[in-house]
């Protein structure tokens, strides 16, 4: 019998966490599932641990591949998936026992293309619940989804694939895969296309997913050498999406505000986190200010934009004035959290 749900787990340097992750999946109250563990050329024992689980439980499949990044690993899982629905779980996270039974039941009850849930930020200090960013309990149809896409960055509902369950036929028929040349913040372009293609979507206000605040994860590294290239590629992918479906004019302000609120500060903070002399850091900041996506967003976003916090307005002002030395001082004193 075809699995109800395929759960794709990319693995890279998650030896310390993968057993908790896989055990949480084997304890799912929904038994008819397949668990696809994708060893993305991990240099640790993640692949060996995955093979052990595969030998113990027929629902577990293992894919070993050369390292290609998170998007490449997820795509390998998508190609192998056979379930009616597809979910994603990162190898250093874990889930509650009823996650996939309850989300699958919600999907079947309302014939949904995508189901979203809330999640918990899990750390040594405890768990912090983050509710779903779409209106919980409300069935969203095509027009509603298009309306939500106009403010996708403000509400952040296109962040993260691991809190969603996707109908596999939706992804297959629309040939939806992850951009493999985007190695950071890769979820958003995928979700833009997936939600646009979806006809029926619902969010459930339950924190089934446990997102581990892992200081060793890719998103937590202080300096990411690939960030500039990935965010440029991500921006181009988003812009291409909006232009393809003739939505750019109505969505431009949402995207530009997001750039000034999150991604430009991320780029600048990343430049200042690099262990290089100030002269080279400022040269990097100058390069960032010359990026077309940055110039456009800085130019078109008002300092009076009420969606920007005070610190974000200060950064925007310094970008408008083109003052690398002050931007360096600001971020070396005040590195913002990821976003």
Which secondary structure elements does this structure contain, and how are they paired or packed?
Elements: E1 5-11, H1 18-26, E2 33-40, H2 46-56, E3 60-65, H3 70-80, E4 85-88, E5 94-95, H4 99-110, E6 114-123, E7 126-130, E8 140-141, H5 142-149, H6 152-155, E9 164-167, H7 168-173, H8 187-197, E10 200-212, H9 227-244, H10 248-273, H11 278-290, H12 292-300, H13 310-321, H14 324-333
Parallel strand pairs: 1-2, 1-4, 2-3, 6-10
Antiparallel strand pairs: 4-9, 5-10, 6-7, 6-9, 8-10
Helix pairs in contact: 5-8, 8-9, 9-10, 10-11, 10-12, 10-13, 10-14, 11-14
InterPro entries: Glyco_trans_2-like, Nucleotide-diphossugar_trans
GO molecular function: glycosyltransferase activity
Organism: Bacillus glycinifermentans
Structure description:
The structure is a single chain. The chain has 339 residues and is α/β, with parallel strands linked by helices. The chain folds into 2 domains: 211 residues, Spore Coat Polysaccharide Biosynthesis Protein SpsA, Chain A; 113 residues, no CATH class. Helix content is 47%, strand content 18%. It has 14 helices and 10 strands. Strands 1, 2, 3, 4, 5, 6, 7, 8, 9 and 10 form a 10-stranded mixed β-sheet that branches. α9 runs antiparallel to α10, α10 crosses α12 and α10 crosses α14. The longest helix is centred in the last third of the chain and has 26 residues. It is globular. The model has no long low-confidence stretch (mean pLDDT 94).
